[in-house]
Structures are given as C-alpha cells and as structure tokens.
Design goal:
344 residues; alpha+beta; 4-stranded antiparallel beta sheet; 16% strand
C-alpha cells in the first residue's frame, strides 16, 4: 500500500487521471468529491479521502504550470517587442546612411560646378525684367504680415464664442505617468486584468449590480474630466439551512442558494490626492427594503459609483473575512453576512 492508504496500482491510475486535468477541472472534481462524502450512503470513504489528499499535490502542480506559462507568454511578448525595436532601428540607420550618401553626392556636384539652375551671364538677360532681391523680400514680408493679422483676428473671434465655463479635458493618469509622478504605476486596464486573473472561488460569481448615482456637480469639474472608476466585484453564495429548508430539502436536493457576502475591488489609480482613501456609505433602497445601496466616493477625477446589495448585518471580524483597505490604487472591501446557526 502507498502512503495514501490505497494500493500502488490504484494510486498510479489516479495519478494518470489527475495529471491530464486542468486547474479548474481539479477544483470542480474536489467539489464533487466533497458532495459525495457529505451525502453519505454506500461510499468507499478511504478511497475518496485518498483521492482528496492527492488532489492537493496536483492542484499545486497545475497552479505552478499556469504561472510558468504566464511567465513564458510575457517573456515571448518582450522578445517580440525587442525584435520590432531592432527592425525599426535598422531601418532608421539605413535611411540615415542613404541621406549621408545623397549629401556627399550633392557636395561633389557643387565642387564640380554642377549648378541648378544654370549660371547666366548679364548679356543673356537683355530685354528681360530683372527683380531686385531686396525689394522682392520686402513685398513678401508685407504679404506675410497681412496673412498673420487675418489669422489672429479669426482666432480671437473663435475664442470669444467659447464660454468661460467650458470643461478642460485632462487625462490625469496619462500625464502623471508620462512625467514620472504617478503614485501608482499600474493602469486601470492592468489592475482589472490582474484581478480577473485570480479567478473565482468555489461559491463565487462576478457581481456588477451597478445603479445610477444622482447627478452631482463637483467642485473640480472645471479642471478635470470626471469619469467612473472601473471595478471587478464578486458575490459569494451558499445554502441556508433554516427550519423550512431542513424540512423540504436535503444534500441531494438542496435549497436555492442565497447571498452570503461580497468582495468589492474598485480601481482608482489616477487619484489626484492618493493620501485620502476612498470611502463608502450605505443608503436605504425604497422600492425593496430587503436591499440597500452602497456608494463609493473617492475624489478627482472619479465620479461616485453605487451598487445594489442585499441588506443584512455584516461580520466585521478579520477572521470572518472582513477587509477594508486602500492599497496601490485599489479599494478592497470584503465582507460576509452574519450567519444564523441551525441545528440539523
């Protein structure tokens, strides 16, 4: 027998089967095994417990393989960019060399007396109108001055038609990063991709129940272009075994899942004042008292953003999953609802 308490030939077959599965398939298999063990009945418990123990190893291997593949893809992108940069540099060098050859050819032609247009003698100009160079330059300058004055008048008329309250659109994050002054180096797109890469838990799903926020005029509207922050939120669901559900449902035929908590990840990488952390407030939802509105407020250049969530008491203990933190341009707000314990 192996260290898992099963025959070595059985362990070998299981290893071959697990080695062919992806990380998501292994997680799904773990959930199915747990349901089978919790459901009772005629189940070979030692076999399934051994399979659960082996799953830990293969899940870790799958995670490392995924991480290694991501690193390889990133390195491949870097190499492609380097190759493109080398090709551009080569083309520039070639163009510079060609320009240098043309300049040398022009210098040689000048030294050999190859002028264009051809040099004429005064005798060849009899009967022709000769323009004085200085007089021609004065006339040209006068014409240029007339054109410039006309353009200046047109610009002045355009500026007068614009209202003084016009909003100046400024991409804050782009300018800060370009100047090397950005507090947070990652953009909203990069933060979104990073959070999406973490995947979903066993009982989690993507959450985007955004609601409209009443129109509000901010004091900084005339300086920065307001915009909504991006986010990647999750909702956690599960079963609630109250007396009714205990009577009408069981493990094989479970009741409908209910919301048990939320994980908010809201991105504010371009905050003008990152020393002031974003805040959140809760408000009543008049159409349905079983729900409420949670509103997040950060400051320029971000508008407020709100979501409709289930109205229940929160768990505020760190060990109960509560997290409220603003770090590296991301506001994390994780909380679970208080659970009522039922005897089965």
């Amino acid at each position: 027998r192996s260290k898992y308490g099963i025959h070595k030939s059985v362990q070998k077959e299981i290893s071959q089967m697990l080695d062919e599965k992806s990380h998501s398939e292994l997680i799904k298999l773990r959930s199915e095994i747990r349901d089978k063990l919790d459901g009772g009945g005629n189940v070979d418990i030692p076999y399934w417990e051994a399979l659960l123990s082996m799953l830990n190893v293969f899940e870790a291997k799958a995670t490392l393989n995924d991480f290694h593949q991501a690193l390889l893809n990133k390195r491949l992108d870097q190499l492609r960019k380097q190759q493109m940069g080398a090709a551009v540099a080569k083309a520039i060098r070639k163009e510079i060399e060609e320009d240098a050859e043309e300049d040398e050819a022009e210098e040689e032609s000048v030294e050999e007396g190859d002028f264009s247009p051809e040099l004429l003698n005064e005798a060849d100009l009899e009967g022709e109108v000769i323009i004085d160079e200085e007089e021609d330059m004065k006339q040209l300058e006068a014409q240029r001055k007339i054109v410039l004055e006309q353009v200046a008048r047109e610009h002045a008329l355009d500026a007068a038609e614009k209202t003084s309250s016009e909003v100046r659109e400024v991409d804050v994050g782009h300018h800060l990063r370009a100047a090397g002054l950005a507090r947070f180096s990652l953009t909203e797109q990069e933060l979104m991709a990073k959070e999406e890469g973490k995947g979903m838990g066993e009982d989690e799903a993507k959450f985007a129940a955004e609601v409209d926020v009443p129109n509000e005029t901010y004091w900084w509207h005339d300086k920065y272009r307001p915009r909504k922050p991006r986010y990647f939120n999750r909702v956690r669901t599960g079963y609630e075994w109250n007396k009714y559900n205990q009577t009408h449902y069981d493990k094989e035929n479970p009741p409908p899942k209910v919301v048990q908590g939320y994980k908010f990840n809201i991105f504010f990488p371009d905050l003008i004042d990152p020393s002031k952390a974003p805040t959140y407030t809760l408000h009543e939802f008049a159409p349905d008292p079983t729900f409420c509105i949670i509103t997040f407020k950060a400051g320029p250049p971000y508008e407020d953003i709100a979501f409709k969530i289930v109205k229940r008491k929160w768990e505020f203990g760190h060990k109960r999953g509560f997290k409220s933190k603003f770090e590296r341009g991301v506001l994390y707000l994780y909380f679970n609802f208080q659970r009522v314990r039922y005897r089965r």
